[in-house]
Amino acid sequence: MEIVVLTMKASVIEMFLVLLVTGIHSNKETTKKVKRPKFTVPQINCDVKAGKIINPEFVVKCPAGCQDPRYHVYGTDIYASYSSVCGAAVHSGVLDNSGGKILVRKVAGQSGYKGSYSNGVQSLSLPRWRESFIVSEAKPQKGVTYPSALTYSSSKSPAAKAGETTKAYQKPSVPGTTAQPVTLIRVLRTTTAEATHTTTLSKPSPSAGSSTSSPRPQPMGQRSQELELWSTTVYTSSPSSAGTNPGIQRRDSPGAAFQKPAGAYVSLGETDLWKPGSVLLNAGFVPKEELSTQSSEPVSQGDPSCKIDLSFLIDGSASIGKRRFRIQKQFLADVAQALHIGPAGPLMGVVQYGDNPATHFNLKTHVSSQDLKTAIEKITQRGGLSNVGRAISFVTKNFFSKVNGNRGGAPNVAVVIVDGWPTDKVEEASRLARESGINIFFITIESAVENEKQYVIEPNFANKAVCRTNGFYSLNVQSWFSLHKTVQPLVKRVCDTERLACSKTCFNSADIGFVIDGSSSVGTSNFRTVLQFVANLSKEFEISDTDTRIGAVQYTYEQRLEFGFDDYNTKPDILNAIKRVGYWSGGTSTGAAINYALEQLFKKSKPNKRKLMILITDGRSYDDVRIPAMVAHHKGVITYAIGVAWAAQDELEVIATHPAKDHSFFVDEFDNLYKSVPKIIQNICTEFNSQPRN
């Protein structure tokens, strides 16, 4: 019996062992079968910007050659999503110019991206942007699944072909910020059956601050008035009927709804909530429906007391946000109404700028206030940076032309609206605009506060852009909600044609260098008379750093720079500087003095400024004046030669610009110098008015 029991036990143990071995083998086979597929790293081009990719975190492979300057990068360490992903990777040192794999993580937008030069890439500064990203080595974290195919915000991407897509994710945070749940809704044109999406936004915690309630990140204490209550928002896509596009209806409360065409991003409530990937891109064209909205009603002839040709340059940059853009459009409509547009009065066109400017409509497209208001309502935001200087150059070259409705006899006025500050320089572009006869007005809204001024590319840009810094041509508005209060003051100023003096004239468009003989034959008393003559001439000009500038050189055997073009920029300061010039005494080397003035004064003259040299001498030069005079004429310096007492007439004619009879003057004694001032001024202006304008 015991033998039978032992035999049975052995059989059971043997069977258990067989089952155990079989199970282990089967488990190994199963494990082999469920082996995960190999992760494929998506590849991108050098010009792909982080803002175009919706995924919050991803691994990509960059090609070689992304060090090229045309792939713009904004920021250092933390980059604005308007940057090239691969360019930022090279700048940060994660990649070299041969390319490779990187890990990209989206973070919150910043205020004040600092530019720097690193690893062969020059990154640029940016005042603020709605989204940022960080790049690091491609070392995926455990437990994190990275996409093998990226989701792009462009409808041309592969992901867009699937019809409607909804992406939701928690926006990653950076130190000092609080992340908020963000839901991105993207609606594409489709002919399929209706689809209904319901999106609920939870109310942010009290610690969230205002970073997600504003269309762009702001320093603490700024624009707090825009915070509004969050609510549950329902979006419903309705089936499209024949010949129409599907639309989206928003219901914040019963009775409050609007229609938005499909193919556009949906604004989540009145807070202009930031949405990753929703950066507006320049389309490069203006929709056809914006070109004309002429009504069939009788056209008003307009206000004849305000006959101006007016261009509005409106801010369409992405940082302005949709809500502010709507306020800006309402401001334009209010101005159009107040101006009383008409063929016999003011005419108005609109240019929108971002990365690049584009004309929405020119001076002759709409000839009544009502037509203008209807057209303004249809303007859509272009997005991009805030390149104001580029927009002003565009208007100078393209807008005020006969084909665009410019009437010639009406003053040209350009009103530039700027949110915060520009992302490029405006001084040179504005100077060229003024010299082309354009009166520039600047409206700056919510300008940089003290801790933001370090990010402004061009300090005091508004004062550098306008021709007068007395406040007439520039208006600083503290808040977008106060912009409507500027309508009447602006209309009053642009219609005051007697004060529209920003156009280039013979009095405000030159760099004038006085070359003064301080030789022993002049004497102390006569030298003071010469200085009074210099002051009398200077008084006739409009002096500022953007108008006429004055410099002076005194010479004997040697030369001395008394003051340069950049030293003084007001008329009182110039007159005081002239009064302080001390008499030197010595020989007379006029040729060397001309060469010195060319090098020390006119070499630093601004481009396209008229260069005038006014030389005063009382005798014949000890050195040759012919070659220096020829060099001055060749460099475009218009030379006036003023001779006193013993000055040689033949030498004056050599020094003077041709024709010599208009550029050389002689008086027999120092006390008669003042008599030549009116004639010199008249000749300067006659010559200016006979030249072709820029």
Task: List the topology elements.
Blueprint: H1 2-33, E1 57-62, E2 75-76, E3 78-80, H2 85-92, E4 100-113, E5 117-118, E6 121-122, E7 126-137, E8 165-170, E9 181-186, E10 196-199, E11 233-237, E12 247-251, E13 259-261, E14 309-315, H3 321-339, E15 347-353, E16 358-361, H4 369-377, H5 388-399, E17 412-419, H6 427-435, E18 438-445, H7 461-465, E19 474-477, H8 487-494, E20 510-517, H9 524-539, E21 549-555, E22 559-563, H10 571-579, H11 590-600, E23 610-617, H12 626-634, E24 637-644, H13 649-655, H14 660-663, E25 664-667, H15 677-690
Parallel strand pairs: 14-15, 14-17, 17-18, 18-19, 20-21, 20-23, 23-24, 24-25
Antiparallel strand pairs: 1-4, 2-3, 3-7, 4-7, 5-6, 8-9, 10-11, 11-12, 12-13, 15-16, 21-22
Helix pairs in contact: 3-4, 3-8, 5-6, 9-10, 11-12
InterPro entries: ECM_Assembly_Org, LCCL, LCCL_sf, VWF_A, vWFA_dom_sf
Pfam family, one: LCCL
Subcellular location: Secreted, Extracellular space, Extracellular matrix
Précis, in short:
By secondary structure, the protein is an alpha/beta fold. It has helices at 2-33, 85-92, 321-339, 369-377, 388-399, 427-435, 461-465, 487-494, 524-539, 571-579, 590-600, 626-634, 649-655, 660-663, 677-690; strands at 57-62, 75-76, 78-80, 100-113, 117-118, 121-122, 126-137, 165-170, 181-186, 196-199, 233-237, 247-251, 259-261, 309-315, 347-353, 358-361, 412-419, 438-445, 474-477, 510-517, 549-555, 559-563, 610-617, 637-644, 664-667. It is 25% helix and 21% strand.
